Amino acid sequence: MEKVPITSEGYVRLRNELKNLKFVERPAVVKAIAEAREHGDLSENAEYCAARDRQSFIEGRLAELEDIVSRCEVIDTKKLKGETVTFGVTVEIVDEETEELTSYTIVGPYEVDISRSFISTASPIARALIGKRVGESVEVTTPNGSKIFDIISISIA
């Protein structure tokens, strides 16, 4: 079984979602199904069909979350040194061509959130950055061609 790196904050979010689905959402959908059954003919009961669809989604997501949580390896980012780009650090880079400054936090695949600039360790830019130090340049192959970035700073997330 392959372990998946995750921050403690990401792990807590997954555990909270799992807990909510098990103890709030699942009982609510079971109740909704029971109420819909009381309305009679199930073949033409939209409430029953919707509740069953929701139940199917919940059970699928529960199975997925239980698998993910069982494979998680929580990495304590507070113990990182921040000398090289690794999992859990925030790295600030500048595009050599456009001078555009960007900051990314390197996280596991289940924490990716591009709106917060959280990118996966498996992303092309993270793979190029990992192991590098401040002042080094990296070349990243993107869909728009190759780009060169300089590492400006590395900090603990």
UniProtKB/TrEMBL annotation:
A GO molecular-function annotation: RNA polymerase binding
Keyword Cell division included in the entry's annotation: no
Record PROSITE patterns: GREAB_1 (PS00829), GREAB_2 (PS00830)
Transmembrane segments annotated in the record for this chain: none
Ranges for domain Transcription elongation factor GreA/GreB N-terminal: 4-74
Domain Transcription elongation factor GreA/GreB C-terminal: 83-155
Listed InterPro entries: GreA/GreB_C_sf, TF_GreA/GreB_CS, Tscrpt_elong_fac_GreA, Tscrpt_elong_fac_GreA/B, Tscrpt_elong_fac_GreA/B_C, Tscrpt_elong_fac_GreA/B_fam, Tscrpt_elong_fac_GreA/B_N, Tscrpt_elong_fac_GreA/B_N_sf
Keywords: DNA-binding, Elongation factor, Protein biosynthesis, Transcription, Transcription regulation
Gene3D superfamilies: Transcription elongation factor, GreA/GreB, C-terminal domain, Transcription elongation factor, GreA/GreB, N-terminal domain
Biological processes, Gene Ontology terms: DNA-templated transcription elongation; regulation of DNA-templated transcription elongation
Protein function: Necessary for efficient RNA polymerase transcription elongation past template-encoded arresting sites. The arresting sites in DNA have the property of trapping a certain fraction of elongating RNA polymerases that pass through, resulting in locked ternary complexes. Cleavage of the nascent transcript by cleavage factors such as GreA or GreB allows the resumption of elongation from the new 3'terminus. GreA releases sequences of 2 to 3 nucleotides.
Family: Belongs to the GreA/GreB family.
PANTHER family referenced in this protein's UniProt entry, alphabetically: TRANSCRIPTION ELONGATION FACTOR GREA (PTHR30437)
Record's protein name: Transcription elongation factor GreA
Species per Swiss-Prot/TrEMBL record: Candidatus Endolissoclinum faulkneri L2
